[in-house]
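User: Fold this; tokens only.

Assistant: Input:
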Amino acid sequence: MRRRLNSRQRNYIIAGLCMILVIMGVGYAAFQSQLKISGTSNVTSNWSVKITNIQSKVISGTPTNALEPTHDDTTATFSTRLTSPGDTMQYDVTVSNGSRVFKSKWRRSR
């Protein structure tokens, strides 16, 4: 047989749960701290990323280059003529990264 709580007991339980929530909120606020990090960083670098080569490879079928692949430092151009279903051509683009970071300085303050 199940015993029901009367309204007085129920009110005590509700009040107790509310008090627990208030105590948890006060405890959280008491231990909360704000972390502030500020600082500066200076970096000098030489940005040098370039396309150095492009080659076409026939993977399957009989595709051809519609135009010969060309490139400059930042652009690769190629066009393929696919003559039958299943033709596949692959382009290998070589990119060189000559970038260097010369100096990195970090200063932290609180």
